[in-house]
Every structure is written in C-alpha cells, then in structure tokens.
Design goal:
Elements lengths: L1 H22 L6 E11 L9 E10 L2 E10 L3 H10 L5 E6 L7 E2 L19
Antiparallel strand pairs: 1-2, 1-4, 2-3, 4-5
C-alpha cells in the first residue's frame, strides 16, 4: 500500500514539475478570454486524479481549442476543481503570439471570483 501511494505522489510531483516548465516564458503572451466546453476528473496512469478542462477561445476571428490538466492527490479535490469550472464558465488563457493554437491556463491569471483563482477550497 505504501508503494502505491509513493507512485501516486511521484506522478503528482512529475505533473507539477512539467506544468511549471510549460509555463516558463509565457509571461509576455497575450491573455484572452476562453469558455469552458467540457470538464471532468478522470483517473491518470497510476490511479491519481487529473482534472481536465477543455476550452475554446478566439484570436483574430479564428476559434482555437485547448485543454488544461491539473493533477490532484485526492479525487474529491480534482472533482471539485472540475465541477467549479463547468461548461460555459469563462477563464483567462495565455496565447503564444507567434502561434495562437498554443495556449496555457495559469491559476494566477484568473480573477479571484473564478474557480481557478480560488484554489484554497479545492485542496
């Protein structure tokens, strides 16, 4: 049982590290409004929950889509996060200026009244 928990914790740390690396250098990217199209919290490789938020956004009249994945140690936390970002909800996304098909969601870009910026109730 302890080994299984260690696997989950290692996967969680890996996802956090990869997430941090993905957001490096995006501070100068354009921030635009996106609309959540779907959200859920399936179980990942080692049994750890990962909230998945699918969204769409508009840049220069063209529609793009993206996915935001955030790992959790406890399933309830991931499920709550996905539930708070229900379809129709708006969130801020950063878009790469040279390739608007590349976007990223950062918790710190969200206004406090949105679920993404208010993670204290999720963990």
């Amino acid at each position: 049982m302890g080994g299984w928990f260690l696997d989950i914790f290692i996967e969680y740390l890996y996802r956090v590290l990869v997430g941090r690396l993905k957001t490096r250098g995006c501070n100068a990217w354009l921030i635009t409004k996106a609309t959540v199209t779907s959200s859920g919290c399936p179980t990942a490789l080692c049994g750890r929950p990962v909230a998945e938020i699918y969204y769409k956004y508009l840049v220069n009249g063209e529609t793009y889509t993206g996915i935001h994945q955030k790992g959790f140690i406890f399933y309830n936390s991931g499920e709550n996060y996905a539930r708070l970002l229900a379809p129709g909800r708006e969130l801020a996304v950063r878009v790469r200026p040279t390739d608007p098909s590349v976007s990223i969601v950062r918790d710190e870009d969200q206004i406090p009244s949105t679920a993404v910026g208010n993670t204290s109730q999720l963990d």
